[in-house]
Amino acid sequence: MSNGPFDIDVDTLGNLRPISKVVLSLGSNLGDSAAILQEAVDFLAETPDLMLVDVSPVYQTKPVGSVEQEDFLNLVVVAESTLEPLTILDRAQAIEDNFGRTREVRYGPRTLDIDVIMVGKRISEDNIELPHPRAHERAFVLVPWLDIDPNGEIAGHGPIADLVDDVDIQGVVRREDIVINANTGF
């Protein structure tokens, strides 16, 4: 069944891949978090085949979990990409590693945390859970995302505008004094 003369049949794309919407959540609470987030966004912008569309304002948020630590600075990046989810995850982890990210303590302090929230409408694949399994419960993801993508949705969970109503947003404070510049190319 055809919806129009310009339908794309992914089986006929050859080596081309369809463009998918990508949502990434970034956070930091060790070191100069604002500078780290700016550099991380710059590295994402330099990633081949990952085109930044928008970067949210920065929010200060309370840490999740019981480990005593400083508040986080968080933001969300919306991009478009032809990359496979595992390639995006590999790039995110390489950027984290560049900033000395360690993974010894779950929910512990971090120089940089980059979560792949979603890649198109894809559902979990080998070695990556999509959409991110807890994104729909996290105010530090939903609130910044809503700022730049008010019609966004998380597959299987619904519109982020509705999901924000179901989470505790106390302690999620927009930081007007911190501006992350995005080289979106748009």
From TrEMBL:
Pfam families: HPPK (PF01288). GO terms for molecular function: 2-amino-4-hydroxy-6-hydroxymethyldihydropteridine diphosphokinase activity; ATP binding; kinase activity. Keywords: ATP-binding, Folate biosynthesis, Kinase, Nucleotide-binding, Transferase. One of its GO terms (biological process) is folic acid biosynthetic process. Pathway: Cofactor biosynthesis; tetrahydrofolate biosynthesis; 2-amino-4-hydroxy-6-hydroxymethyl-7,8-dihydropteridine diphosphate from 7,8-dihydroneopterin triphosphate: step 4/4. SUPFAM superfamilies: 6-hydroxymethyl-7,8-dihydropterin pyrophosphokinase, HPPK. It is an enzyme of class 2 (transferase). It catalyses: 6-hydroxymethyl-7,8-dihydropterin + ATP = (7,8-dihydropterin-6-yl)methyl diphosphate + AMP + H(+). The keyword Transport does not apply. Residues 106-117 form the 7,8-dihydro-6-hydroxymethylpterin-pyrophosphokinase domain. Its EC number is 2.7.6.3. Gene3D superfamilies: 7,8-Dihydro-6-hydroxymethylpterin-pyrophosphokinase HPPK. NCBIfam families: folK. PANTHER family: 2-AMINO-4-HYDROXY-6-HYDROXYMETHYLDIHYDROPTERIDINE PYROPHOSPHOKINASE. This is 2-amino-4-hydroxy-6-hydroxymethyldihydropteridine diphosphokinase. It comes from Tessaracoccus aquimaris. The lineage of its organism: Bacteria, Bacillati, Actinomycetota, Actinomycetes, Propionibacteriales.
